[in-house]
Amino acid sequence: MNNYKHKWKYNDNERPQGCCYDCRMKYGEFPDLIIPNHLWGLINPTLHEDAGLLCPTCIANRLNYIGEWYKDNFFWM
Question: What phi and psi, each to the nearest 5 degrees, are found at residue 14?
Fold first, then answer.
């Protein structure tokens, strides 16, 4: 994760307020996206389990970076 364009995890004192950690888009300006817990655990930008905020684009960017975007059976019908 050292080569990702943003710091992969932030400390509590670096926590952005009400916006996506990577791009800083304000919450409410993007739709919610729900992903399985095990995937969120891989990309969570905080040091806390089940915490943090990323917009859908930044979620996709992080999943793609670790090779987990567009896996078979990722989307259910």
Answer: -105, 5
Domain limits at 55? Answer: 22-65
pLDDT at site 77 = 46
* Residue 1 located in a structural domain: no
CA distance 8 to 46: 8
Local confidence band at 1 (pLDDT 50, 70, 90 cut-offs): confident
Exposed (0-12), middle (13-18) or buried (19+): which is 54, by Cβ within 10 Å?
A: buried
Does 7 reside within a domain?
Answer: no
Encoded tokens for 26: 């304000």
Tokens at 24, concatenated:
């800083």
Residue 71: predicted pLDDT: 66
Instruction: Work out how many domains the chain is built from and give that number.
Output: 1
Q: Kindly report whether the global pTM for this prediction surpasses the value 0.70.
A: yes
